[in-house]
Design brief:
By secondary structure, this protein is of the alpha+beta class. The protein has one helix and six strands; from the N terminus they run ββββββα. The two termini are 22 Å apart.
């Protein structure tokens, strides 16, 4: 699976005009929530499993329940490949 995430410092209910996209840099702390709902059993009436990064299942409604992650430096071998793009 491959995906792209655009992190925001502010993504309020007022809409995208007020949203502030995060500027990512080495050593920055970011709050991140990721949840996976597993529907492996096609005969089940609902999901069979639920996993997330938070210790709470309500992470989608309260940013203080997100996990803090520190952005680590790029490995030197990868940095040159990105510069070539």
């Amino acid at each position: 699976m491959e995906f792209w995430i655009t992190p925001f410092d502010c993504a309020g209910p007022e809409g995208p005009a007020r949203a502030v996209e995060s500027v990512l840099h080495q050593d920055k702390l970011i709050g991140l929530g990721w949840a996976v709902i597993d529907y492996d059993n096609v005969d089940a009436r609902g999901s069979s499993e639920f996993w997330n990064l938070s210790s709470k299942h309500t992470l989608y409604g309260n940013a203080s329940e997100l996990r803090a992650f520190r952005l680590m430096p790029l490995e030197p071998a990868l940095a040159s490949k990105l510069d070539d793009r």
